[in-house]
Amino acid sequence: MSRSALVDRLQARIGLDPDALGTAALDHAIDEACANLGCKDAMALLIEVERSPEKWQQFIDCMVIPETWFFRVPEQFAELRRYAQSRRPLRVLSLPSATGEEAYSIAIALFEAGLGPGEFDVLGIDVGARQIDQARRGRYRSYSFRGTTPAPEWFTQDGDEYLVVPAVKRRVRFQVGNILDSSVLGDERFDVIFFRNLLIYLDTGSRKRAVHRLQSVLTPGGLIFAGQAEVLSSVDDRLQLASEFGALTFSVAAQSGKIETAQLPSSRSPTRMRPAKALTQSGPDRLRRQEGLSAPDSLQLARKAADSGDLCAARNACQEALARNPESADTWFLLGVVETAAGELGRADEALLRATYLDRNHVDALAHRAALAARMGRTGEAAQLRARLGRLSGESV
Length: 397
What we know:
Elements: H1 2-14, H2 18-21, H3 23-37, H4 42-51, H5 53-63, H6 74-84, E1 90-94, H7 101-112, E2 120-126, H8 129-137, E3 139-140, E4 155-158, E5 161-164, H9 166-169, E6 172-176, E7 190-195, H10 204-217, E8 218-226, H11 232-235, E9 239-241, E10 249-252, H12 253-256, E11 261-262, E12 271-272, H13 276-288, H14 295-307, H15 311-324, H16 329-341, H17 345-358, H18 363-375, H19 379-393
Parallel strand pairs: 1-2, 1-7, 2-6, 7-8
Antiparallel strand pairs: 3-5, 4-5, 8-10, 9-10, 11-12
């Protein structure tokens, strides 16, 4: 009973959807919080977090599992650089910012776009205080770069850690906060919002509140960069795909006076955006019209379909690519992501396992396998996979 009461409070206070995280992951977080706070059981933990805001925050920290790295989804940072050419000064929000890699990537991208120190400001917000503390330190190990080499103009090396240079750190602020709390952002406004991979953990009502809150702090003509398979227009139709940018970029339709159009990944002319359900129904037919695609072309089509939320077309394109190249770990990984988003956890598990069989060091597939194993109640397997990721990165995960 006390465990369910803790989960109820998480849902009420931070909008957490218990089904999205899974019973095993919730139980693991509660057990970790009990150990960290010296509570003998869930009832003792419930009493502690009810009477102490500090203990509640420590409990929240145990719930947060950051999954981020520098320049995740590089295409969005390229779009940010392009947008910044006509928009100065520029204010950018990263939410959730996790351990800070995204917020610092934003600042680096804007410096690379030619903006000076006084021409932009970046704010990173996350519900986890422990994650924000790490972000403020600006110290990272190789795992945060996912196989890329940290550029010496932005990072200095200190043993096995990389430190964000002071010029970049000065342009980024961090704050502990929850998007559902109307007092968090106050009267601040932002030209660009990176809002990736949070909605999948929120319940339906909290999704609507979060997206509404984002619109209230977005300046006219501003952009929101969303996460993979997060179609913001399906939560609030005032947000539509921005025609000048990629399939994960949204703007407020009322600002342009029309619904934006999206460019299909082919030579055909743009078509008017349709609701997400219609896109999904039309996916197979559209895929069949793509003739003569190579395996890389099919994989690219699959990525664009997944980014736009058209899971049916993404699945079909993955299968088309695998028919041409069945040993592509990247394609099996993407298929696993698509099946997870579609709620087909068994199929997702099989696809991710195949990806790591073909590439034992595929860190993205390993991370998704660990999260999926925890969600499906296989805690031992999840722990083993996280330990394997830790060995790959040289640090515990």
